[in-house]
Amino acid sequence: MALRVFCNSCSCEPRKPTPRFCLTSCGHVFCEVCLQKGEKDKCLICKTACQTLVLSKQINPDLQALFMGVDVLCNKYSKEITQISEFQEKHRKHLLIHYKQKAAKLEESLKKATQQIQQIQCMKPPEKTPQLPFSSTSRNPFSIPSRKQNGYSSYPLHSSHPSASETVEAMEIDPVPSPMRKV
């Protein structure tokens, strides 16, 4: 059922002979008689500046839709929405297939890289932890001989600093070379 058109000023409806009706840019509808009573380019209801358009079958389809019944509009737009929805779904499926193929290629590359790493690890002999040439029980080549042995005074030279042997024993040695260090 189409929307009944009536003048927003005098509430008259179209009849034969029908006065022309106009739609304002502010959304009001007036018959030609009332429109001529008001000020030019000014709405009779909201008093704002506006433009008018004569209602006819030749007006823009979007404006014609304002006067169509909701059931007619639902059928019309339902068909359009269905077409748009099917179009968009088809493109989503194509995109999904593309990403699935891309993911499969990446998974295959990851699998190959993992296999290569495992093969390299199997071929490489296990690394042994390097043994230091001295231990805490053996004589430390970096230790300073006792002051009594070499005839020097028994007074400590630097009592606040640890001896070289204490420093070497306290150091931890990393068997794996640092990537920053040149070997």
TrEMBL record:
Protein name: RN212 ligase
Domain (RING-type) ranges: 7-47
GO cellular component, one term: synaptonemal complex
Family matches, as PANTHER family: E3 SUMO-PROTEIN LIGASE RNF212-RELATED, RING FINGER PROTEIN NARYA-RELATED
GO BP annotations listed: homologous chromosome pairing at meiosis; protein sumoylation; reciprocal meiotic recombination
Keyword Coiled coil: yes
Biased composition (Low complexity): 152-165
Organism of derivation: Piprites chloris
Coiled coil: 96-123
GO molecular function list: ligase activity; SUMO transferase activity; zinc ion binding
Feature: compositional bias, Polar residues: 132-151
